[in-house]
Amino acid sequence: MANSVWVFAEVKDGKIKKVTFEMLSEGKKMAEKLGVDLSALLLGQNVGSLAEQLGHYGADKVYLAEHEALKDYTTDAYSKVIAELIKANEPSIVLYGATVLGKDLSPRVAARVEAGLATDCTGIGLDDSGKLTATRPMFAGKAYADISFSDSKPNMASIRPNALPVSPPDESKKAEVIKVDVNINPDDIRTTIQEFIKTAGERPDLTEAEIIVSGGRGMKGPENFKMLEELADVLGATVGASRAAVDAGWRNVSDQVGQTGKVVSPNLYIACGISGAIQHLAGMSTSKYIVAINKDTEAPIFQKADYGIVDDLFKVLPVLTEELKKLKAEG
What is d(CA 241, CA 212) in angstroms, rounded to the nearest whole number? Predict the structure, then answer.
């Protein structure tokens, strides 16, 4: 008999991350097919008000764990609380976002409960027996693997942000809130948060951005990224960079897209002056639409691009930005 489907609700700066709603939307379909409840795990301090929103996106139950030790994310505290909840309730499936936090948390919980884990998945479903199936890229995105699970429970997976569609919220739907008794001793936590340093700007996080404008070595210098910032402002986009641009000191490492940076799946990815090394493609190849601007006709990025402009980006970008401004003004 299948038990419930669980989704870890990731919270940042007092808001639930979009990948949570993606997982709830897909998790609801699986829960209905299995005939079980869909539950969300909400951890933190003073986060109870967010439970209502989780209900709107499909959660039947919200396990609410509030404690001073959960105010800021630490691997030890979060993995301990979630592992104890899993052992006590025995869900069939547990889903996490493949974010920086989720990539740290999910394997730790899997190890504590001795469960299988498929990471950085771009698709999930159920087989004929009701077990989780998952699809994930391999070999820098050159191939995709279909993952199946053994009979051990729970089946666990982390989902790449922007990989799944979000169903419209139903504000008439409410979730049952189950308050969890949290028992955390100081000895359980081996790390402490000393300081948070936030970068300036209010653009969406790269991993959850719908549109990304990225620059590479072809930008020729940090001052020229202002052109990408202007285009991003018009599109409501986030600015990214290749490793070459980051290594040159032109952009912060937090902006790096690629195998050694952030893996992204936006609806639109505009690559400017990026040749398309395999390490960069590994971080953005699952974008729904890719536009490449490069004067090198042989640049590998054109093999992956849906649309390509072979020309000097310093001529193309100002024209593109102005035309988009006109279209936006016309509505």
Answer: 10
8 A C-beta contact, residue 282 and residue 262: no
DSSP symbol at 180: P
Phi first, then psi: what are they for 265, rounded to 5°?
A: -140, 60
The residue-averaged pLDDT of 110-120 equals: 95
Percent of the chain with pLDDT over 70: 98
Domain containing 88: what range?
A: 5-188
198 occurs within a structural domain: no
Beta bridge partners of 143: 138
- Boundary of a domain, candidates 139, 154, 188: 188
Question: What's the rounded mean pLDDT across residues 226-255?
Answer: 96
Pairing of strands 132-138, 123-126: antiparallel
Do residues 134 and 172 touch, judged by C-beta distance below 8 A?
A: no
241, β-bridge pairs: 215, 256
Residue 48 structure tokens: 């109870």
Q: Report pLDDT digits (tens) over 184-232.
A: 988 888 888 888 777 656 688 898 899 999 999 999 999 999 999 999 9
Does any domain span residue 98? yes
Tokens of 254: 């937090």
CA distance 13 to 17: 9
Q: Which strands form 132-138's sheet, in the order they lie side by side? A: 123-126, 132-138, 143-148
The answer to the question of residue 310 being in a domain is: yes
Same domain? For 168 and 26 the reply is yes
Q: What is the pTM of this model?
A: 0.86
Cα-based distances in Å from 261 to 54, 199, 242, 245, 252: 30, 17, 9, 12, 11
Quote the tokens at residue 40. Answer: 């969300």
Half-sphere exposure of 299 (CA within 13 A, CB side): 26
